[in-house]
Specification:
By secondary structure, this protein is mainly α. Helix content is about 70%, strand content about 0%. It has one domain (about 1-204).
């Protein structure tokens, strides 16, 4: 039973799915209040394709080719190919967002996501920092950034994310996938990167 309770958040908050939750939150919020609904959906739809759909397809291909041998890529050395593809996707979104003049804070959100994953990728060669925790911390950082941007604090969402983060942390410890230090480092990395980098837009 404990293992089942640990596997649920491991799959529910799989790092490849975290951008989908962020994009979904932007879709139901006033994040793009100055854009028409069609343009808003086009921006988010293309982002979803690049940041979620294509990396998942690539991950499945790596599994079929046995480049990644476990469903959670438990061997940190196997993760680099998945990380590189996802990094490329984030970079493309940030580049085209900037090139086509999408609101700057949207570009910087993807710059933040790229920076967090780039650090995870580099550290992964030496230490198994938690990508799950980085994703959860990044999602929390994004929500708090958005609360400043929209001048309202989504308290219920922050509580849900806090509880979910605790669940994910417990799950990764229960499954012996990471140490406490690897989880804390990952969460701090995601949180501060996704919270502070988007604020660069206010100093342009």
């Amino acid at each position: 039973m404990r293992r089942l309770l640990a596997l649920i958040p491991t799959y529910l908050f799989q790092p490849l799915l975290i951008p989908a939750y962020g994009i979904g939150l932007m879709g139901v919020s006033s994040f793009f209040y100055e854009y028409s609904p069609v343009l808003k959906m086009a921006i988010l739809g293309i982002s979803f394709l690049l940041a979620v759909v294509l990396p998942i397809i690539w991950y499945i291909i790596l599994r079929l080719l046995k480049v990644i041998t476990t469903s959670q890529a438990s061997d940190r050395h196997e993760r680099k190919w998945a990380y590189l593809f996802t990094l490329s996707a984030y970079a493309l979104i940030a580049f085209f967002s900037h090139y086509f003049g999408v609101v700057p804070y949207y570009t910087y959100l993807w710059v933040g996501a790229f920076a967090a994953l780039a650090v995870v990728y580099i550290v992964n060669f030496f230490w198994k920092i938690s990508a799950h925790a980085t994703g959860m911390g990044g999602l929390m950082g994004f929500v708090i950034f958005f609360s400043f941007f929209s001048y309202k604090m989504p308290l219920f969402l922050i509580i849900v994310l806090s509880l979910s983060s605790g669940w994910v942390t417990w799950a990764r410890l229960e499954l012996k996938a990471h140490s406490a230090a690897q989880l804390i480092a990952g969460y701090a990395l995601g949180f501060f990167t996704m919270l502070f980098l988007p604020f660069c837009t206010f100093f342009q």
